[in-house]
Design goal:
Elements: E1 3-5, E2 10-12, H1 13-21, H2 32-44, H3 51-72, H4 79-110, E3 116-119, E4 127-130, H5 143-157, H6 175-188, E5 191-193, H7 194-199, H8 204-219, E6 223-227, E7 234-238
Antiparallel strand pairs: 1-2, 3-4, 5-7, 6-7
Helix pairs in contact: 1-3, 3-4, 6-8
InterPro entries: ScpA, ScpA-like_C
Protein name: Segregation and condensation protein A
Pfam family, one: SMC_ScpA
Length: 240
C-alpha cells in the first residue's frame, strides 16, 4: 500500500480520507495536487500497473476533491454532486468486478476450457467433462441459406428511427458580461453581499462565472472582500 507524505499528513490515502470524514483533520490544509503528483510518479516507476489499485485511488481522490470543494465553496454544493460521486464509486466497483471476471476467463481460455457439462455417470457422482466445440452443419445447409437466416435476424436488430426532440438552447453568460453587471451594481451600492449576486444567477454555471468575475475585479483593484469568520458571509466593497 502506497504511503503519502506531506507537512500535515503521512500515511495511506485511506487513512487520510477516514480522518477527514471524522473531522479529525482539516481538508483545506492538504495539498491534493501534491498527492496526485506523487501517485503519478509512483505509477511511472512501476513495471506493471494494477488497474484495481488505480480504481481505488480514483474513488478516494474524487471523494477528497469533493470534500475540499465543499469546504472552500460551501454555497456551490448541490445534491447532484453527491449523486455523481456515488455513481463514480458504483462504476469503479463494477469495473473491478468485470476485471476479476476477465482474469478468470483468461485462465480458462489458457487451459482451452471452452465449455463444460455435468454428467452423473454410472457412479452417480457429478464429474466435469471437457468438450471441444465444433460447428457441424448438415450437408444440406448452403451459404445462401445462412445468409438468408442472418438477414432475417438482423432485420429484428435494426435500430428504430427516433424523432429528435426540440431543445431550447440556454444563453451562456460570459465573464465580461458578469463583470459589467457587478460594476453597475457597485455604482449603486459601495458594499453588498456576494449572496445577492448568487441569488440573481440562473444556474450553477452562472454562479461560478460570478465568482470568477469578482476575483478579476479584485485583481484589478476595483473591489475588495470582507468576511467575518471562516464560513461567514462574504461582502464586496468598492475601492476608490
Amino acid at each position: 500500500m502506497m504511503e503519502f507524505r506531506s507537512e500535515k499528513f503521512s500515511g495511506p490515502l485511506e487513512l487520510l480520507l477516514s480522518l477527514i470524514e471524522r473531522e479529525e483533520m482539516d481538508i483545506t490544509e492538504i495539498a491534493l495536487a501534491k498527492i496526485a503528483d506523487e501517485y503519478i510518479a509512483y505509477l511511472k516507476n512501476l513495471a506493471h500497473i494494477d488497474p484495481e489499485q488505480v480504481a481505488d485511488f480514483l474513488v478516494i481522490a474524487a471523494k477528497l476533491l469533493y470534500l475540499k470543494s465543499k469546504a472552500l465553496l460551501p454555497y456551490l454544493s448541490t445534491p447532484e454532486e453527491d449523486e455523481e460521486i456515488e455513481e463514480l464509486e458504483h462504476q469503479l466497483r463494477m469495473y473491478k468486478e468485470f476485471l476479476e471476471a476477465s482474469k478468470g476467463l483468461e485462465k480458462m481460455l489458457a487451459k482451452k476450457k471452452f465449455s463444460f457439462v455435468r454428467d452423473l455417470g454410472k457412479s452417480g457422482k457429478r464429474r466435469q467433462l471437457f468438450i471441444w466445440q465444433k460447428f457441424s452443419p448438415p450437408k444440406s445447409l448452403t451459404k445462401e441459406m445462412l445468409r438468408e437466416h442472418f438477414d432475417y435476424i438482423l432485420g429484428f436488430l435494426a435500430p428504430e428511427e427516433q424523432e429528435l426532440k426540440e431543445e431550447i438552447i440556454e444563453h451562456k453568460i460570459s465573464i465580461e458580461e458578469k463583470i459589467s453587471f457587478i460594476q453597475r451594481k457597485l455604482m449603486d451600492k459601495i458594499s453588498f453581499s456576494f449572496n445577492q449576486v448568487i441569488k440573481e444567477a440562473g444556474n450553477k454555471t452562472e454562479i461560478i462565472v460570478s465568482f470568477l468575475a469578482v476575483l478579476e475585479l479584485a485583481k484589478q483593484r476595483e473591489l475588495e472582500f470582507q468576511q467575518d469568520g471562516l464560513f461567514g458571509e462574504i461582502f464586496i466593497n468598492k475601492l476608490n
